[in-house]
Amino acid sequence: MTASENEPGRPAVRTEGSTDALPLAPTMGMSLDAAKMPRRSTLVDRRVLRITAVSIVLGVLAALIARLLTALIGVVTNLAFYGRWSTAFSSPADAVPHLGWWVVLVPVAGGLIVGVMARWGSRAIRGHGIPEAMEQVLLNESKIPPRITFLKPISSAIAIGTGGPFGAEGPIIATGGALGSFIGQVLKVTGSERKVLLAAGAAAGMAAVFSAPIAAVVLAVELLLFELRPRSLIPVALACVAATGMRYLLQGTTPVFQMPVLAAPGAMALFLYVLIGALIGVVSVWTTRLVYGIEDWFEKLPIHWMWWPALGGVVVGVVGYFAPLTLGVGYTNIENILNGRLTLAALAFLCVMKFLSWSIALGSGTSGGTLAPLFTIGGALGALIGIGIAALAPQFGMDPRIAALVGMASIFAGASRALLTAVVFAFETTGQPVGLLPLLGGCTAAYLISALMMRNTIMTEKIVRRGVRVPSEYVADYLDQVGVDEACSRNVVTLRTSQALAEVRRWLAEESPQAQHQGYPVVDEHGHVQGVLTRRSLLDPQWHYTLTLSELVTRPPIAVSESHSLREAADHMVAESVGRLVVVSKDDPRKLVGIITRGDILAAHARRLREARHSARHLRFRDGLKPRPAP
């Protein structure tokens, strides 16, 4: 290890995923590290293999945790509603007839327990988990407190098992992410690698619950990683493969929401599915606003937030008494909606009552997920619209089951703006290839409406209110697309090693335009760059005027090749704490070809801004063309 690598902040910039930049001649007498040249960024390296191996193990663990959480929810449900000990996944709805009004007390008790756990355990267990994980990724180098790894699943199992209208997927995603973060804090890894482990654990949890590995990978990219790079994609993808493989081993390979084989839609039906997606996109926007409006209402209550989940539990219990199907995760409800087993009245009643129960419970700050409730609400709404169109205009070929599928995915695409996740998830969980085109059209329409009407999403609104800036667009790094040779200044004013300091000071005192620069490369008699001297050093009174410049050069040049990118140059400036770099030839690293400064890097963005803002017509057509005269 070189001395430069021991400086604070240097290893992450210079060694992570890097190789040597240029082959150097043995006679040069100056090594690459001595010249302080940036190293080429690579797609993957041995550290990626290490993180990938850890991620695969993490995927297996996340699948086992998902299975354990499902069993824990079953235990709480059976104890709370049936008074028996069993891990079977039971529906609370069947217990309502014999419990009567006593059913109201069950979610209230669950809310009290969750409130106590949040106050004296960790407040981070409140909510549905994904926004909290996003906040840790963006602000805290993906460092989730280790106690969340067991507090989140236990609190969620209690909330859901006592009738909370949530899905198990959110808590499992949060728990998998917490486990990945914990492992990333135990091992010696970078903040970027810890983020990958957090995303791998979260995605593996989702893959294990729904047997949807591709959707889980896309979810990690859209909501957690905020990037698409091989060094992050590979570990997350293989973690999801491992988690799904464990699910196959434990639970089989059948889709979570089984549907019969459906007929491909016609052109008119496809157009209507897109319209359904747009309508439900509007619903997703108002759903998000109402959820956070309810949360704001709870914030105004004159009681401690510890009691809010119990108040939300009162609403859950009362709604559950009149609409038992709203209690619990409700995966069976989603399958019934997708298969057209519910009547028009039952769909409308379930849609309204599920939204009422879920939105108030979520706003109260209890622990639970959002995916399953949104799928229930959106699927029921899509089915309602599909049944109506099929009854009024059967000639259009509308299938209410596909309409339900589009509604289920569109409300999630609009509320979270995770477009690709919604499309792929709906396909993987149902295994319906004919639904892909309607899903893509409907979800894109919902995404468009959401982007027009709402700045933040149901996933980001909470943390944006806390001052967190959440990336909403993922684009290629512009600086990585521009070479140093395009941006550097080539008319460089240089000094010679043989010059005396007195001569240089007289020249600086003349205040000519060439003497106004803040730094000057120093070259020897052969034109080989030896270092850089700043104006401040040249005028420093501690140096005697009889010294030559070769005696003032105290460290090797901080250089960059003209074949490097501006991203590598900018990172090198940060690593070396300098504002300018010497640019050397790619063919002869001893030959000076220019200099690049921070200002040159900023100026390179001018083309990007011009391309984004300047509109012009480049193909012009002459108006009023006269017919060619006859010969």
TrEMBL record:
The annotated region (Disordered) lies at 1-23
Q: Where in the cell is it found?
A: Membrane
Q: What is its main location?
A: membrane
Q: Which UniProt keywords apply?
A: CBS domain, Chloride, Chloride channel, Ion channel, Ion transport, Membrane, Transmembrane, Transmembrane helix, Transport
Q: Which InterPro entries match?
A: CBS_dom, CBS_dom_sf, Cl-channel_core, ClC, ClC-type_chloride_channel
Pfam families (UniProt xref): CBS, Voltage_CLC
Molecular-function GO terms, alphabetical: chloride channel activity
User: Where do the CBS domain residues begin and end?
Assistant: 488-549, 553-611
Q: Which residues cross the membrane?
A: 48-79, 99-118, 196-221, 233-250, 262-286, 306-330, 342-362, 374-393, 405-427, 433-453
Membrane topology reported for the UniProt record: Multi-pass membrane protein
Which CDD domains has this protein been placed in?
CBS_pair_SF, Voltage_gated_ClC
Per the record, its GO cellular-component terms are: chloride channel complex
Supply the PANTHER family for this chain: CHLORIDE CHANNEL PROTEIN CLC-E
State the protein's name.
CBS domain-containing protein
Q: Tell me which species this is from.
A: Rhodanobacter denitrificans
